[in-house]
Amino acid sequence: MSAPEKVPFTHWDEPEGEWTLPGACPVRTDRTLLLEAAARFLFPTVLVFSVYLLIVGHYAPGGGFSGGLVAGLAFVLRYIAGGGSEGAEIGSRLSLRPPVLMGLGLLIAVLSALAPAAFGAPVLASATVSVEIPLIGTVDLVSSLLLDIGVYLLIIGVVLDLLRSLGSGIERDARDAAGEEAGP
Does this UniProt record's set of keywords contain Zinc-finger (predicted)? Predict the structure, then answer.
């Protein structure tokens, strides 16, 4: 068993383990442990809140747009904390491709908006179905929830695409600055 490696005092707070957020941060010293720990705690919490906004959007303010923006903010927080130049990975273990997510969201939204016209109803008309779920009770499912799900996915895809495009320039500038500091 080898002795633990001595870390200079100036580098004692740099993230070292897998328990921190994954991501390709160009300058590891720019990552803060507190922000990474907070992001690891807040990311799933904010995503659950965004799904809550998505679902209650028919009965209270919220819906697909608000839920998508909140989920997008969770990805922005994760990106700021951990970096991520691998396209849409954005510090996540799931590889989401923003153009595919945007296309899927747009397809779901358009199809759910036009579906009532196939049955002779006006475009964007909605129907309600009551479903009895054991231990929960009666749940009303509104067909316009599909439109909100499409908008939710579309907004998340747009935010991830913005992070990918804008973040790549920021990371490139950070790498260039780190290369200049290191010298030739």
Answer: no
